[in-house]
Amino acid sequence: MSTLLSLPTSLPSESVTLGQLLTYPLHHSSNSLQPSNLPASQQSSNHSKEEDACATTHVIIDEPLQVFDNLRHEPEAQAFLHKMFQQNKPVYFVTGLQTSKSPCHKRTAMSHELITEAASTPQPQLHLPFRRVDSASNMASPSPPTKSESADSVLGVQLLKVRCRVGAVDEPHCISDVDYTWSYHLLDDEEKEEYPQLSIGLGKSVESHEWEALTGIAEHQEEKEADHNWSYDYEDSDDGLGGF
C-alpha cells in the first residue's frame, strides 16, 4: 500500500482527484490530466470526539494497477505524457486522498505519515467554491461555506511514480527502469519517423523521504534546528560559566 503523504498546505478538493496524472502535487494549477470517469474506490472515515478536531476521510483506488493500465492506452493520456517527457517534468499517478470538511486542518500524527501542519487558512491564490443561489425567492448574494458546511480540503495524497520515454522500438532500457512496469505505444505524429515509440512505465509509490525532498520539508526542519541551536549557543555564551 502506498504511503499517505501529508500536504504542507491543504488544497481544494476539486484540484486533485483519484486517477489523476499530475506534475507538481503541491500546487493545484500545475500540469495535470484528470480522468474522464472516477475509478472504483474504497473509503474510510475518522471522526474525533474533540470539538475542534478534524473529521477526515481516506479514499483509495480499488485496483490502481488496472486503472493505470487502462489510462495509459488512452490517446489523451499518451499525448499528455509525451508532452511532459518533452518538457522534462516528473509525473505522478494519484491513488489515494485524505480529505476533511473541518475548518481546522491540524492532523493527528500517524506512524506512516510525516508530522506536519497545514495552513489554517487557504493561500490567496486558492479560491474555494461558493454555493450558488438561483432561487428567485432568495436573491441574497452567495456566501462562503459556513463552519457546518465547510468545503472539502485535501490534506494528504498517495502517489505512484510515472516514467515516460520516447525512442526507437529497439532502444534498450536503463538500469533504473527495472522498478517500472512498462507498456509500449507507436506514435502517430510528426516525430514518428525519428522516434516512433512511446514507452510508459508505472513505478513504486513515493515514500516519505522522497516527499520531504520534493516539498522541502527536510530542508525547512534543518533550518529551524539550526536557528534553535544558534539561539541556544548565543544564550550560553552570554552567561558563560558561573556568570563569568
Order of helices and strands: EEEEEHHEEEEHH
Rg measurement, Å: 23 Å
Mean pLDDT over the residues = 75
Main beta sheet: 9 strands, antiparallel
Query: What distance lies between the first and last C-alpha atoms, to the nearest angstrom?
Result: 58 Å
Computed structural class: alpha+beta
Number of domains: 2
Number of strands: 9
Unreliable segments of 5+ consecutive residues: 105-149, 218-222, 240-244
Portion in beta strands: 25-35%
Number of helices: 4
Biased composition (Polar residues): 30-46
Biased composition (Acidic residues): 233-244
Region (Disordered): 30-52, 220-244
Biased composition (Basic and acidic residues): 220-230
In short:
With 244 residues, the chain is an alpha+beta fold. Helix content is 21%, strand content 26%. It folds into two domains: 5-122 and 146-206, no CATH class; 207-244.
Written description of the protein model:
The protein has two domains: 5-122 and 146-206, no CATH class; 207-244. The protein is 21% helix and 26% strand. The protein contains four helices and nine strands; from the N terminus they run βββββααββββαα. Strands 1, 2, 3, 4, 5, 6, 7, 8 and 9 form a nine-stranded antiparallel beta sheet that branches. Residues 233-244 have a biased composition (Acidic residues). Residues 30-52, 220-244 are annotated as: Disordered.
